[in-house]
Amino acid sequence: MRHASRPTLVALTSLVLAACGGGDRGASSDTAAAAGGATATAGSAGGATDLVAVGEQKYQQICASCHQANGQGIEGNFPPLAGSEWVVGQPEVPIAIVLHGLQGEVKVKGATYNGAMQPWGMMGDEDIAAVLTYVRQAWGNSASAITPAQVKAVRDKAGARAAWTAEELRTAYPGAGTTS
Q: Which of 62, 146, 150, 163 could cross-link to 103 by cystine, CB 3.0-4.6 Å?
């Protein structure tokens, strides 16, 4: 049996994901570049501006269907990210949520949501940093940028695990889900 080259496999995987509505979810900036697409990352020459621009693009591809383009979420189903205490607090908290997902009851801006967010840990550290930087600085949010090094640190600390619950996040990151 003949084996395809890595760039061919990456390109085919990207096409399958895109056809399934997954955009480039499984492809980090490095794999997207290997597939022939040029993608700016946190390490690009444009710095934070590129990080926010890349983050906005990826947010629209991956997150907006649930949390909406305006970050307001869908009442009763998907929590808002605009003004969310889970987003603008400690940077490790949204990183942990994106990496491993979130399940069960969570309060956001006084409303209770009880669902599940799938993990996005298959994304590269640069892409997660970009998306979260955008989210933490869009729609009136004014939190600090997220770096790929921060994402890597949270990824390394948590290792392989199931989705977080709000209570587990509060235990691991005291003050999680609060703005103080």
A: 163
